[in-house]
Amino acid sequence: MFAVIKTGGKQYRIAANDLLKVEKLAGNVGDTVEFGQVLAFGEGESVTIGAPFVEGATVVGEVVEQGKARTVIAFKKRRRQNSRRKIGHRQLLTTVKITEILTGGAKPAKKAKAEVAPAAEAEEKSARKAAPKKAAADKDAE
Questions:
Q1: pTM of this prediction?
Q2: Which of 33, 38, 65, 129 is the most buried (most CB within 10 A)?
Q3: Number of other CB atoms surrounding residue 2 within 10 Å
């Protein structure tokens, strides 16, 4: 099943388990985001098109990464005027993994808490490893 959604002023054709880079969305890595502006959805020949949006249809995704795009250079030069200007721009992007395409007002499935825990444990382990080194450095200083 595919869906066409609108976010950040652009339209995207997506399916389940797709990775999608969209304009910056609020949220941290691992958070769930819902796209309510579904323009169309369907499979094969049976496609439902909204006017402008399909009622009761939502697309659910998980934030995978917050980052920036490659640098785009805007260079302006006026010949024989000794005038030039160079400006770079990096667009803020959010990478989203599409988990579900819901129709008929269905609610998104709850994500298991066990998947979030390993990431938190890894952060705690790295903090524990850093703490003894700092304590050893303090003892050496005395």
A1: 0.68
A2: 38
A3: 15
Rounded CA separation 77/49 (Å): 47
What is the rounded distance in angstroms from the CA atom of residue 50 to the CA atom of residue 102? 14
What DSSP element (H or E) covers 53? none
- 96 three-class SS: strand
User: How far is residue 49's CA from residue 62's CA, in Å, rounded to a whole number?
Assistant: 25
pLDDT in tens, 70-98: 999 999 999 999 999 999 999 999 999 99
Quick one: tokens of 88?
Answer: 């770079």
Specify whether the CB–CB gap between 69 and 30 falls below 8 A.
no
Distance CA 29, CA 20 (A): 14
Whether residue 141 contacts residue 133, with contact meaning beta carbons closer than 8 Å, is answered with no
Helix spans in the chain (H) = 117-141
- Locate tokens 């659910």: which residue? 60
Tokens 């024989």, residue located? 80
Cβ-Cβ contacts under 8 Å for 30 (sequence gap 6 or more): 62, 63, 116, 119
